[in-house]
Fold this sequence. Notes:
The structure is a single chain. The chain folds into 4 domains: 1-33, no CATH class; 48-78, no CATH class; 93-115 and 333-402, conserved putative lor/sdh protein from methanococcus maripaludis s2 fold, CATH 2.40.420; 117-138 and 146-154 and 226-330, Beta Barrel (Elongation Factor Tu (Ef-tu), domain 3). It is 18% helix and 38% strand. The chain is built from 6 helices and 26 strands. Strands 4, 5, 6, 21, 22, 23, 24, 25 and 26 form a 9-stranded antiparallel sheet that branches. A 6-stranded antiparallel beta barrel has the order 7-16-19-18-17-20. The radius of gyration is 48 Å and the shape is rod-shaped.
Amino acid sequence: MKISNNPPLLLTIAALLLALGGGIGWRLALQNQPAPVEPVAADNEQKVLYWYDPMMPQQHFDQPGPSPFMDMPLIAKYADNTKDNNEDTAPGLSIDSTVTQNIGLRLATVTRIPLSRQIEATGVMAFNERDIAIVQTRSGGFVERVWPLAVGDVVKAGQPLVKILVPEWAAAQLELLAVRGFNDKQLLGAAHQRLLLQGMPEKLVQRLEQTGAVQSYYTISAPIAGVIQTLEVRNGMTLSRGQTLAQINGLSSVWLEVAVPEAQAEAISLGDSAKVRLSAFPERSIEGRVATILPMLNESSRSVRVRVELKNPQQQLRPGLSAQVTLSSASQDTALAVPSEALIRTGKRTLVMVVDDQGRYTPQQVTLGHEIGNQTVISAGLENGQQVVASGQFLIDSEASLNSIEARSANLPTDGAQ
């Protein structure tokens, strides 16, 4: 066979051969390639319910994007497709036990506690204002001597304070001595009474009748033991009848003025016990009783002043000392209570997370009573023996809000909350 040397013909033949070879190779490749697999949608693909900001979980958005509240993207909330369609639809939030362990969840039981309350407050020592003696002159005269005393000095009962000269006593004493010779009891009694009316003490009149010696000087002594509050007498002074010389406050007992917040004042009653701890005597405490509850409220501190009377036999309790006081009220009544840390205070209401027998968590609105120690009385909303979340309740409450679980009302029967 003779092949032509025509170049266009040769190029045409080469192109045909290449096309034929490529077609055969592509067919062989298709025969050896496995059949394509049709894409199948995963059964466990989660559906997005809405998007939310973790800082404002109650606000839902239909589209993803940046949060209008914080500088962060919105987070998708997916539908829970892992539940069986036949699963019980009881209200509440189910949480895996591993999650509860990781967040440190801790439960507490609604229990009944006595209503005896303890109130911690501060107090300041003060003088017992019922134990005051006023020293006055019963007659006019002149100060002959003043013992070296000053305000703040502590004196004993009967200790001399001032010596005075009373000139007007002299004539009345001579009259009594004159009528003694008449042996007339009526005249003698009248002379005796005249000296008493002029301010001469009974013991001095009796001494005059026994000795017959005229006494023009008189020493005034402290009527009680205590501290001198005022001293208004000096040597050489002229005194008028009834003039005040000194004021003495007794120290056999003192008052402890305790400031009790007005919110806790109704729990205090007369006779309640008081345990007093002084920084001056840290090794011991003093027991006392509530003696008076003053009717007026201190407007600056919004507190009620409670007065505790304390015995002071050794005079170690000094006015001005500060003290820590525990006031305890005795009561036979009881009430339901939960740990105060279990409460979720929103500002408008108070919630607790209740756990049922199936392990579901449900927010429950409660009505609060008083706080006793680390427990808070529940007036309505809970029953005795229920379980509440004491630690980690804020995380569960946030998850309940994301799942649109509404809190139950507090208008539920309680097991004798009051």
